[in-house]
Amino acid sequence: MILYGVGTGNDGGSTNHISDGGGRVALKKGPWTAAEDEILAAYVRENGEGNWNALQKHTCLARCGKSCRLRWANHLRPNLKKGSFTGDEERLIIQLHAQLGNKWARMAAQLPGRTDNEIKNYWNTRLKRLQRQGLPLYPPDVIPNHQLHPHPQHQHQQQNQHQQMYFHPHSSQPNTPSSSPLPSPTQLNANPSSSFTFHTTNASTANLLHPLSPHTPTTPQTPSQLSSRPPPQPLSSPLSSPLNNQYPTLPLFNNNNNNTNFTFPRPPPLLQPPSSLLARRYNNSNTPLNYTNRVSTAPFSPVSRDSYTSFLTLPYSSSAAPNTQPITYHTNNNYSSFSLNPSSSSYPTTTSSPSFLHSHYTPNSSSTSFHTNPGYSMKQDLPSNQIPQICAFNNVNNFIDNEKGLHRRSISCSLLEDVMEEAEALDGGGGGRPPKRRQLTYSPLNNHHNNNDNDFFSVTFGQYDSSENICSLQDLKPKEGETLEMNTMQEDIAKLLDWGSDSGEISNGQSSAVTDENLVLDVHQFASLFPADSTPAANDNNDNNNFSWDDLD
DNA sequence: AAATCCCCCAACCGCAGACAT
DNA sequence: CATGTCTGCGGTTGGGGGATT
Who touches strand B, with Cβ under 7 Å? Predict the structure, then answer.
């Protein structure tokens, strides 16, 4: 028990020392006892709420009025709900927070039986969890008011209250939309669901060094618009496991026609990852790729393995039937990024590179990471009025379900290990603590449909909720207006890189370690992660249409 | 099994605004 | 207008307890 004597503390309008007929009463702090609760409850029953300071005078309760009010409001008042928030409540909180921001009391008014403090704690806990996992705070169908109607003064206030987001000085530089095929940071801020789709006409004959062509900038789009769009053509999945067809294939490529669409996700803004990840992620050593530096990006770069998470976990959607549609990632981000992560441990680097890569490549990285707004930095703590991030979960239900996480137990290849790691983080996101261990198994497989010698990676799930976790591919509905259609795969990538160059990004003047050749290698590495689907369903129409990334170079 | 780590949450503090006197 | 009270909010703290070492 802590007793505070005269003059200790200042309770805002009230004090910790209350005059009691000429004397002063030491006010107790700390946890309330049952006896205190009973005194408080009895007083309120008799006198009603309010006038909390008078309570101390009229009872033997040595608590300040503020403490009494808090105790009553948060624990003693009738009709209080106890226990965890229900799914509906969670959804409502997310939606309310999107509308109201950190107006806990107003949010509590919409949640009968719940207190503002409870909601605040829930949100802060959720915030930390999502921050730790690098997940966005809002599902795509929740567009916060302050994003729909940005208020400069409000934003300024938030900045002053240490609520700034990831803005980097560079990001304020104006972009010329016409000069860039992809949205500028400003555009992205107003674009809650941007994605860009590669449109390849003939992947096998594509040339990475194909001259760049103009692209259609992505257009702003609301989640409701997203959800109202018709699903695209089903595509086969190179991520499906030949061994286990029970899991949905990744409809990433369709080789049945010459219009192979696949959409690179624009991953959600990455919050500051846990230090354990930072140490690995930002490992600047030039040692061969291994688990500790497998995905290496520039410090503060929003591009990281999390990109893959957002990108690659989607195909494992439980509800996604095979051959549904291309992955389209709709996000609301302050940046766009595109990453190619090699799974190989040997990766040549040179000092000559296209200028458009300079500002987007991490020289010390063994991977190739490109992002359109490298100037964005990550903030340690997410601001309380978080600028919303919208990820591939197109509605709150999927979003929350995804927060609950999937259970995955084995996977192969380094990139997928990254995916797994993030997935494991998701695994622990829903109430439980994130598991700290994971088990990976490597299952090299022979793809008789594939000409190359790439091993298949088998993805198996020890515990897999096939009913509702993570958004389905059907939920990821692309929109023509927001996709970038390109002629070739290589062109797509090159153009994507070029976009970053045109988007007002700053080159640090360092020589990039990426060359066209390396880019090809990157794509090659990337391709190795997406072997052509050998499942019968994927080859029904054209058995020879397996997409081979090896054909790219 | 014990020590340690880490997460969650009740409770608190400080401040500001609204309102009543 | 000054003062006191109440309320709301952001931020923080510290203990409990589960997970991990």
Answer: A 4, 9-13, 16, 28-32, 63-64, 67, 70-71, 74-75, 84, 117-118, 121-122, 125, 128-129, 132, 274, 433
Banded pLDDT at A156 (limits 50, 70, 90):
very low
Q: Which structure tokens are listed for A414? A: 């380094």
Report the run of H or E that residue A4 belongs to, with start and end: strand A2-4
Phi and psi angles of residue A420, each rounded to the nearest 5 degrees, phi first:
-60, -40
pTM above 0.70, yes or no: no
| Minimum CA–C1' distance nucleotide for A436 | C20
Pick out the nucleotide with least CA–C1' distance to A121. Answer: B9
Question: Which of A146, A201, A178, A506 shows the shortest CA–CA distance to A359?
Answer: A506
And the tokens for A239? 């991520």
Spell out the SS3 assignment of A444-458: CECCCCCCCCCCECC
pLDDT tens-digit readout, A103-117: 787 888 888 888 888
Å from the A337 CA to the B5 C1': 35
Please give the Cα distance from A365 to A124 (Å, whole number): 33
User: A384-387 long-range CB contacts below 8 Å, 24 or more apart?
Assistant: A384/A102, A384/A161, A384/A163, A385/A101, A385/A102, A385/A146, A385/A158, A385/A163, A386/A127, A386/A137, A386/A163, A386/A165, A387/A144, A387/A146, A387/A147, A387/A165, A387/A166, A387/A189, A387/A269, A387/A334
Predicted pLDDT at A68: 86
Q: What is the pLDDT of residues A353-364, one digit of tens each?
A: 222 222 222 222
- A355: exposed, middle or buried (C-beta count within 10 Å: 0-12, 13-18, 19+)? exposed
Backbone angles phi, psi at A84, to 5 degrees: -70, 155
The better pLDDT of the pair A104, A429 is held by A104
Residue A75 DSSP class: I
| Full set of structural domains in chain A with CATH | 2-76 (1.10.10.60), 87-133 (1.10.10.60), 134-553 (no CATH)
Residue-by-residue DSSP string for A79-109: T---SSPPHHHHHHHHHHHHHHSS-HHHHHH
> Is the Cα dihedral A301, A306, A310, A315 positive or negative?
positive
